[in-house]
Specification:
By secondary structure, this protein is α+β, with helices and mostly antiparallel strands. It has twelve helices and 24 strands. The strands form eight sheets. A five-stranded mixed beta sheet has the order 1-4-9-6-3, with helices on both faces. It is globular. The relative contact order is 0.09. Bound molecules: iron/sulfur cluster. The site of iron/sulfur cluster (SF4) has 13 residues, from loops. Its cofactor is [Ni-Fe-S] cluster.
């Protein structure tokens, strides 16, 4: 898509400011990076869940960029009503002898960093998901215009990324224009960036690229970006990592020599393992780029989508940031994000970028799309063309199933591969056994017999239809609430209510109790 300055319609209010700002009414420092602005402390919210928003960097010829100029289109900060949410677009035009379109996403991703250096300003997420809050404290200190925010951000861009020789910003709060530019300019550019990498595969290159930007809040997180695995924030592709490593070799994106291939299906490489060990401070030593369960990629917290394993159906669900309802496992995105983030390898949860759904190697070690059982309708529609024809209609959405029981019914009805066992397309190996209902019944009978023999009713074990991965205990989600049934014993029994608990199970052994000597 051609890069050109956006047209500002006649009649829309705008203000312009040229040149550097002498001083700002707020502090600027990396120490504000972790600052959170809660709702009661917030003056206004921009973008987020209630309003559209996006951030976009476009590389332009130097003569077209007016250095340090800011244009604010629509109501400025001092015209906004306290407590309200507004649409928000931040567009930056950048120029420099080394600046090309390859670098746009890398520069764009740093907007998140630099804006979080501003005291009283919180920036979350990226691309079309941006969510900003401005604190009341910053307003009291004198922040009253987006010009101040844009100038501070542009100053940081130029200081930290010296290859940017000129930068100009357009901040937009006019609802109609934000919506129009999101659909007509930003989304096509994001789509173009994501599509670019589709023809290239992991085996075609000698190097992958790292990103350690998010180590500021997830110190052990190391994103490994390969052609078949774009970053989990969705902002960095292999091409972007390569471009960033070239212009800023000491920066957060470094080349990772692949080394020897250890597991071609899981996507494990000796070079990646060595790099991950070093950059995570020894926290983890192995990473498989295309595995959900076995040494999965770490998740920092910026993921666009969370994958979650549902042992009851032996399948994987995916939920995106914008889906507000609980998934069939009973947990909303926000709760699962707490489980998934922090830069850890969590078997059972995985954070990914939406563009990973395009990958030919999408969780291929675990059956790829044939292991996927549920997605919100909006997400499914967005990636529908990447789902193989023979499985697309077998993946449930909230219209088919909102609970595990409904999901089970749906999967049975459509004869989803998880029901009889998933055959992994990449090598034709059957990797799951399917729902072994007869075996389940036998186990239940055995448990019942055991109960009769022991005359001590036990807590009913739920037969699990999955096998924990070798060498790695499966970490199950924190369940909102588990009630262990009352023991109908002579003493009236007890009732245990466990809330917000994490349950770790290495192994479940169900044994029929043997009669003790002497017949007791
Ligand atoms: S999520 Fe990964 S790729 Fe994206 S900014 Fe953070 S560290 Fe970089």
């Amino acid at each position: 898509m051609e890069r050109k300055k956006i047209e500002i319609p006649e009649g829309v209010k705008k203000i312009e400011s040229v040149g550097e700002e002498a001083e700002f009414p707020f502090d600027i420092s990396p120490m504000y990076e972790g600052e959170r602005i809660r709702k009661k402390e917030m003056y206004v919210e921009l973008g987020g869940t209630e309003q559209p928003g996006f951030e976009l960097v476009m590389a332009l010829p130097a003569e077209e960029v007016e250095d340090m100029k800011v244009t604010v289109v629509g109501p400025d900060l001092n015209e906004m009503e306290e407590g309200k949410a507004y649409p928000y677009a931040m567009i930056y035009y950048v120029a420099g002898s080394q600046v090309e379109t390859d670098l746009e996403p890398v520069i764009e991703r740093r907007n998140h960093d630099f804006q979080n250096y501003l005291e009283g300003y919180m920036h979350l997420n990226q691309r079309y998901d941006i969510w900003i809050r401005i604190g009341k404290g910053a307003i009291k200190k004198g922040l009253n215009s987006f010009v101040q925010i844009a100038k501070a951000t542009m100053m940081l861009f130029k200081n930290e990324l010296p290859f940017i020789e000129k930068i100009e910003a357009v901040y937009i709060t006019d609802a109609e224009l934000v919506e129009k530019l999101l659909n007509e300019v930003a989304m096509p550019i994001f789509e173009e960036r994501d599509a670019r990498v589709e023809a290239l595969h992991d085996e075609d290159v000698d190097e992958f690229y790292s990103c350690t930007l998010c180590q500021s809040f997830a110190p052990t997180n190391v994103c490994v970006v390969s052609p078949d695995r774009p970053s989990l924030c969705g902002a960095i592709s292999w091409f972007d990592g390569r471009a960033a490593a070239r212009v800023d070799p000491e920066g957060p994106n470094k080349a990772i020599p692949k080394g020897d291939i250890i597991d071609p299906i899981g996507g494990e490489y000796s070079g990646v393992n060595e790099f991950a060990k070093e950059e995570s401070g020894g926290e983890y030593e192995r990473v498989k780029l295309h595995s959900f369960f076995d040494y999965p990629h770490t998740s920092c917290g910026c993921f666009e989508v969370i994958g979650f394993y549902m042992p009851e159906v032996d399948g994987i669900g995916w939920v995106h940031r914008g889906y507000p309802e609980p998934a069939p496992n009973g947990l909303p995105f926000s709760t699962m994000a707490g489980q998934t983030g922090g830069g850890k390898q969590i078997a059972g949860f995985l954070g990914i970028g939406i563009s990973y759904f395009r990958s030919k190697k999408f969780i291929q070690a675990d059956g790829g799309w044939y292991r996927v059982v549920w997605m919100p309708k909006e997400l499914k529609e967005r990636v529908a063309k990447y789902i193989p024809d023979d499985i697309r209609d077998k993946i449930a959405t909230e219209e088919d199933a909102k609970t595990i029981d409904e999901l089970k019914e749906f999967l049975k009805k459509v004869d989803h591969p998880v029901v009889k066992g998933v055959v992994r397309p990449v090598d034709g190996k059957k990797i799951t056994e399917g729902w072994v209902e007869e075996a389940e019944e036998e186990v239940e009978e055995e448990v019942e017999e055991a109960e009769e023999v022991a005359e001590q009713p036990a807590v009913a074990a739920q037969p699990q239809v999955f096998a924990p991965q070798p060498g790695q205990p499966l970490q199950l989600p924190a369940l909102p609430q588990i009630q262990i049934p009352a023991q109908p014993s002579a003493g009236g029994g007890i009732k245990l209510v466990i809330k917000d608990a994490k349950i770790y199970i290495d192994k479940i052994v169900i044994r029929k109790p043997e009669e003790k000597k002497g017949g007791k």
